[in-house]
Amino acid sequence: MMGFAVSDELLGTVAPIVVTGSDDEADKAQKFSLLVLARQFVTAMIILDTWQYFMHRYMHHNKFLYKHIHSQHHRLIVPYAYGALYNHPVEGLILDTVGGALSFLISGMSPRTSIFFFSFATIKTVDDHCGLWLPGNLFHMVFKNNTAYHDIHHQLHGTKYNFSQPFFVMWDRILGTYMPYSLEKKEDGGFEARPTKEYKDD
User: Fold this and answer.
1) Would you state the pLDDT for residue 105?
2) Which residues form a coiled coil (predicted)?
3) Which candidate, 165, 143, 147, 145, places its Cα nearest to that of 155?
4) Closest CA to 167 of 130, 197, 133, 123
5) Quick one: how far is CA 43 from the chain centroid?
6) Closest C-alpha to 151, from 133, 168, 176, 169
7) Which is it for the CA torsion 62, 66, 70, 76, positive or negative?
8) What mean pLDDT is reported for the chain?
9) Using 50, 70 and 90 to split pLDDT, how confident is the model at 2?
């Protein structure tokens, strides 16, 4: 399991350098600017989110892919941090490596910038799967796609909803797969994410 996480990070860091030549060439050609960096990050976030939404949803709707590939990740009914990248190697290739390569290439970021972007995306993904709603968590304040949002997806009937990952919820909202939730305080401590509308059976 940890091997998959390491291989995903290694591919996300090494692949851009192999594709573009060297880190030095890309940095010389690109003048550093915070505005350029912000544009590249936002572009990469939108590209990665779009790719992950449609591929993730397809893996749920294609019975063969779900049974033989994506179901490995959904063995985790209650997500935990290590489970973020607990998936079949083919899923890692399709969702993470191809999606990462597309977001890298289309955004125009340098390999050095991509190290920060993919590290940020991985930390965000781990946080989304940690199963903890911690007060003051910046990810929960900035992103609607957070731990509770993704917990709904991992619940028994939630696999038909909340496909978006790792940053925004726009595709779920646009395409009708958004499942709102509420956080309910548990008697023994902590919170539980519960859907606030009825599940529809297909």
Assistant:
1) 97
2) none
3) 147
4) 123
5) 15
6) 133
7) positive
8) 81
9) very low
